[in-house]
Design a protein that fits this description.
Blueprint (H helix, E strand, L loop, with lengths): L2 H51 L3 H4 L1 H15 L6 E5 L2 H6 L15 E4 L7 H13 L6 E5 L2 H4 L5 H4 L9 H7 L6 H13 L1 H4 L1 H8 L12 H4 L16 H20 L5 H17 L2 E6 L4 H4 L4 H18 L3 E3 L17 H20 L2
Parallel strand pairs: 1-2, 1-3, 3-4, 4-5
Helix pairs in contact: 5-14
Length: 366
């Protein structure tokens, strides 16, 4: 074979040999790429699950996590001042304004913080107090809202805390175990939520990172960007038109009027209240309960029997547990509220001054 023919044969078969030799290399590269991708996905899942359980509680539970962060900073910047923390529902969130309690911003003066959370009933409040104490945040004084309708709640933790189950931590499962009907099922649900934290908490994560990418109805950023320096979240607008207030009252009527007409304190709620008291006493935290104002329409939904049942419960609580109930809720007209039970800003300022002057100042000795 001539040299030219040999070259032609070599050129003809060289590409075939090259392609044949490269296939295993490409397969190895593809497998390596796939493996790296899987490792990255697993790392992202595990990393997010660990982050929301530890260093980023605000991504998992914004109302709690942002307040915890803010309260820690507030206390660090005001060392030595007695700390008064109020825990409660959205009534407290919007109606309890520490800045309007007129405590001077100086050494020795009480440092008051609003730790209200929307929808929080007795079991949720107990969980909040347990979390705070375990996080090393120990108030000197704890104010606990008694919301009559929320006191009627009964049943296992997984039912009462259904909207907040994705926000629970592994430690919360231990805290709630005495109240849980099926602990293994709740643990499995928690594990699935943590494994899928990117999906489960997607609205919270996007509300923190890119809220503009979400429709405004799905954004959660209002839960933290409206906080004042002491945890108060004022009602979004200063005044409400009469027609809008009437609409709000009708909506609230549908939520609460039925259970207030035939009223009883739930066994789970009573147990949570008493366990909260015992936990605080063991930690050396002074506790008092308080009630939030209600408008005339809301008050009309209580039957005489319901009022008697509530009064009997509060009387028994004070006698048996030796704890005070601060009642500065009277004297508020309908125009103080947005919807019959959430105070507008003016009403919140008035209530907070009244609560401080008549009860909190004597209680803390200031």
């Amino acid at each position: 074979m001539s040299a030219a023919a040999a070259v032609r044969v070599a050129l003809r078969f060289a590409p075939v040999r090259w392609r044949s030799a490269s296939r295993p290399d490409r397969r190895r590269a593809a497998r390596a790429g796939l493996g790296c991708g899987l490792i990255a996905v697993v790392a992202a899942l595990v990393g997010m699950g660990a982050a929301v359980e530890t260093v980023k509680p605000e991504w998992r539970d914004p109302e709690y996590g942002h307040r915890l962060k803010q309260l820690r900073a507030l206390r660090a910047n005001n060392p030595g001042r007695p700390l008064v923390v109020a825990v409660g529902s959205s009534r407290t969130q919007m109606g309890f304004s520490p800045a309007d309690m007129d405590f001077p911003d100086e050494a020795g003066s009480p440092l008051v913080y609003n730790f209200g959370q929307s929808g929080a009933g007795p079991l949720h409040l107990l969980l909040t107090v347990e979390r705070l104490l375990d996080a090393g945040v120990k108030p000197d004084y704890l104010l606990v809202e008694l919301f009559p309708a929320a006191l009627a709640a009964d049943g296992p933790a997984e039912v009462l805390l259904a909207p907040w189950r994705p926000r629970l931590t592994a430690a919360d499962l231990r805290r709630l175990a005495p109240y849980t009907a099926d602990p293994p099922a709740l643990r499995r649900e928690w594990a699935a939520n943590r494994l899928a934290s990117w999906h489960t908490l997607r609205l919270s994560l996007m509300s923190h990172w890119q809220p503009g990418w979400l429709p405004w109805q799905q954004r959660l950023s209002f839960q933290w960007d409206q906080l004042d320096a002491h945890g108060w979240t004022p009602y979004p607008i200063a005044a409400v038109a009469d027609a809008d207030r009437a609409t709000g009252i009708e909506r609230v009527r549908g939520q609460y009027a039925g259970q207030l007409a035939v009223y009883r304190v739930g066994g789970t709620s009573d147990r949570a209240v008493r366990d909260l008291l015992n936990r605080c006493r063991a930690a050396g935290v002074a506790v008092a309960f308080y009630t939030m104002p209600e408008g005339p329409a809301f008050q009309s939904w209580y039957t005489p029997a319901a009022r008697a049942a509530l009064a009997a419960y509060l009387d028994a609580l004070t006698r048996e547990c030796g704890v005070s109930v601060f009642d500065a809720a009277g004297g508020f007209g309908e125009d103080a509220f947005a919807d019959g039970h959430h105070l507008l800003r003016g009403g919140a300022a008035r209530f907070s001054r009244k609560l401080a002057a008549e009860y909190v100042r004597p209680w803390v000795g200031r």
